[in-house]
Write a structure and sequence with these properties.
- The protein is mostly helical and 184 residues long.
- The chain is 90% helix and 0% strand.
- The N and C termini lie far apart (178 Å).
Length: 184
Amino acid sequence: MKNVTDSFVSLGHWPSAGSFGFNTDILATNPINLSVVLGVLIFFGKGVLSDLLDNRKQRILNAIRNSEELRGGAIEQLEKARARLRKVKMEADQYRVNGYSEIERERLNLINSTYKTLEQLENYKNETIHFEQQRAINQVRQRVFQQALQGALGTLNTCLNNELHLRTISANIDMLGAMNERTD
């Protein structure tokens, strides 16, 4: 290894008069080497780099186009969803209004029905009271009539003798005969 490094070092000591050799001065050779390497890279790598950049550009453009298409589709779906939401809101409002009016109508019907039922119950109550009063009055009349009849019969039985009894019977027969003649 020592021989190889010695040969490079010895090359650095060659005279620069018309011969080819290595310049070991780093500050002087670096910009030149870099410019040569960059020139070679640009000359040969220009096509590869251009192809890579074109491919990258096409992928970016395709991604932008796809994003725009997706955005357009999303905007359409959003508009459709908003339209459906508006429609559903309108239907919900209509159901709410109809529901409130239906509830109010049912409430009024229930109130009217309750009033009618109460009126009927009041009428039934009044009819029942009237019927019971008439029945009670009839019972009292019948009872009074029975008591009066019993009292009259008792009085008649105690007061009547046979002669008075026969006169009463003949007076009643005469009255029946007179009534019979009038009806004929």
